[in-house]
Amino acid sequence: MNEQTLSMRLERVAAHVPAGARLADIGSDHGYLPVALMRRGVIAAAVAGEVALTPFRSAERTVRENDLDPWITVRLADGLAAIEPVDEITAISFCGMGGETIRDILERDKARLSGQERLILQPNGGEPPLRQWLMENGYRILCEEVLRENRFDYEIIVAERTGPVTYTAEELYFGPLQMQVRSPAFLVKWQRKLRQKHKTLNQFARARQGMPEEKVQDVARQAQWITALLAQA
Ligand code: SAM
């Protein structure tokens, strides 16, 4: 992967960035996403935010080598502190971080959001708490995808602040739109997850003592939900 040939995961994220956007890519690492989108003429400008020095330098190098310094600003900053009002950001991407980490950044820094930005989220796990945050903060999920690459299942969640929205516990767990669309990648992901849940329940049963009942019940409930989802025609 590089700034010309993105991974399939980042390619799918790129597809949700609106033409002409002013993008903030938080946790940009190498900066491949904003640089690829700028090279393709999809976006008007970008900020690449990084909290760690080595990836920050890597993003700076990618931008410099592509002569994109006038359009892409690389900032060493924690979360949304990378964004200044003058940037007039219209889309924010968070890719390759845990869902809880993305949720925590959004919660801590929500005063920095104008509410006009499209959020393009690619969490590595922890999707339900992230969807919960979106619901609690008036963000509607506009698009969702599941894809598999390098033996990992990835989800992409696109959301915009539209006002109050309600999702059921199952919708927060599976994704409200994915539950309707039931793409092949989504179904294969949940078949795999169900096998994992059954394995965990078997391990719990063998361990017997010391397993908090609450934990066992939680995994059993998830297995039930997945079984019911997969049983639907
Ligand atoms: N976004 C790239 C991608 O998807 O290929 C890189 C993903 S990399 C696994 C996650 C990056 O997020 C790391 O470079 C890490 O330093 C950065 N990161 C983690 N927490 C952050 C925070 N609070 N603010 C900014 N960057 C953060």
Describe what you observe in this structure.
With 233 residues, the protein is α/β, with parallel strands linked by helices. The chain is built from nine helices and seven strands; from the N terminus they run αβαβαββαβαββαααα. The chain has a seven-stranded mixed β-sheet, with helices on both faces. It is elongated and about 60 Å long. The relative contact order is 0.11. The chain binds S-adenosylmethionine.
Return the string of H and E elements: HEHEHEEHEHEEHHHH
Describe the global form: elongated
Ligand catalogue:
S-adenosylmethionine
Q: Averaging pLDDT over every residue, what do you get? A: 96
Strand-residue fraction? 15-25%
Main β-sheet description = 7 strands, mixed
- Could you name the ranges where pLDDT drops below 50 across 5 or more consecutive residues? none
**SS-based class:** alpha/beta
Give the N-terminus to C-terminus distance in angstroms: 38 Å
The total of beta strands comes to: 7
Query: How many helices does DSSP assign?
Result: 9
Whole-angstrom Rg: 19 Å
Q: Going across the major beta sheet, what is the strand order?
A: 3-2-1-4-5-7-6
> How much helix, percentage-wise, in residues?
40-55%
